[in-house]
Amino acid sequence: MRFIDLVRARESCREYTDRPVKKEDLCTILEAGRLSPSACNIQPWRFFVVHEGDLVGKTAKCMQGMGMNRFTDQVPAFIIICEQTTNLKQTVASGIGGHSFAQMDIGIAAAHMMLCARTMGIDSCIIGWFSDKKLRELLNLPNGCKVRLVLALGYGKKAEPRTKRRMEFDDIVTFVETPKKKGE
Amino acid sequence: MRFIDLVRARESCREYTDRPVKKEDLCTILEAGRLSPSACNIQPWRFFVVHEGDLVGKTAKCMQGMGMNRFTDQVPAFIIICEQTTNLKQTVASGIGGHSFAQMDIGIAAAHMMLCARTMGIDSCIIGWFSDKKLRELLNLPNGCKVRLVLALGYGKKAEPRTKRRMEFDDIVTFVETPKKKGE
Lengths: 184, 184
Hints:
2 copies of one chain form a homodimer. Chain A is an alpha+beta fold.
């Protein structure tokens, strides 16, 4: 499969069957995240996995409210992607020019994991709307770990991906040309 | 190729041959970025491509100083990854809980592009140390576009990837267990 076809095949899935995700498959996905690159190789990510018992449903509730993310009740496995915020080097780096290298790194790791999942036939959805406080209490997350994203994982009900709605290529890409000199 | 092997094969490359990257290959890589997912599908990224003439070398200079990134003199192509910061919806979303969804999205798009490049035999390096001001002036970047990352692209001199230095799996991954009830 060409990489671009993998990209086209991956989509945010919000309808899941009740098929569970095997722990060994979760480990492969997590390994793809672990091996991701990060600024200065700081690896700011910490992954908390929920895939067993009634904790899964309780975790889903931490992403719900105001009509949001009801589909998470169907999700069989979650990877809670946290930023380890207590690294001084990272904190310093984060302060330059409004950049948050740690959050860009978190995005890189999330991309690795969801693309890896797709190659294994596992669907996913990145969730950015959740209660950090509720997740923290339920899962007993350590201090210094800030929840940045939640990756929902499971087997989707749909066989064919939707057509992607994206801005046109020319609206987001500019090939910068060298200015011509006088007389050229 | 299994995805995990692609992840292992990709590494930050800082030694390039003088082989240029074809524009059509750059377009494929950019397409992988364009199709990336983002929070609320906002697509906060804008890509500026430099791959021709003396602009390439001048762009490299914007990432140098204090001994940093000298290798960029060898790089035949750059994708300047900017965040479009003037989107109100994005600005609101960015303000919740210290999250920068836009920067996480930028990370996701960067991961798509560098992994895509690797499948095409093209090496890359994400650069986070640069002068936004110099890049802005040189490339005439529009207001509202903030440079977040630069993706260097080219053909590396080394055939075999280095062994990755990463934290151990158990140091960053926690499988959260449901607490056992009394008597179980």
